[in-house]
Amino acid sequence: MNLDAKISTPVAIALAVVLIGGGLYWTLSGGADSRPLEVHYPYWCRDCKAVFDVSELKQPGKWRVPQGAYSDSIVLCPRCDKGWAFPAPPCPACGKRFVLHLLPDAGCPYCDPKVVEEAAAKGLDLTPPEIKALK
Q1: 68: left (phi over 0), alpha (psi -120 to 50) or beta
Q2: I want to staple 45 with a disulfide (CB 3.0 to 4.6 A). Which of 50, 51, 69, 96 is the partner?
Q3: Residue 91 contacts residue 126 (beta carbons within 8 Å)
Q4: Based on the domain organization, do 65 and 88 belong to the same domain?
Q5: One domain for residues 10 and 23
């Protein structure tokens, strides 16, 4: 047995112990960031005009997509239990809120005037007063 083999075996064992211990500590301490992403934005019911936070839909049995909805983010309103509720997050470009999915594939009415024209032609308001009142 040569001297290099005697030195490398204890070093390899120590390195393995450190790596396993570090990995175990990292895993048990929650890793990089174990907190779930908290997303908050309002939903607006087209029928009863209620405005509520998306967190209300995270309760068991509350996320119910109505038959015929063209997006799985359109849900039955938990307040009136019959109307379709639509998300109203802020526009990533301008930061203003508008109701998504009232028109399929429509963008922000503040950033694209064509969207306003298309909505008006169908009698829709993508920025109802209940959403405009939100900060």
Answers
A1: left
A2: 50
A3: no
A4: yes
A5: yes
CB within 8 Å of 44: residues ≥ 6 apart: 50, 51, 85, 86, 88, 99, 128, 130, 131
d(CA 127, CA 114): 14
Helices (H), the chain: 3-28, 113-121, 129-132
One-letter amino acid at 91 equals: C
Structure tokens at 93: 């470009």
Enumerate helices (H) and strands (E) in the chain, giving the number of each: 3, 4
Q: Examine the domain organization and report whether 57 and 112 are in the same domain.
A: yes
Same domain, yes or no: 55 and 26 = no
pLDDT tens for 86-131 read: 999 999 999 999 999 988 877 899 999 899 899 999 999 999 999 9
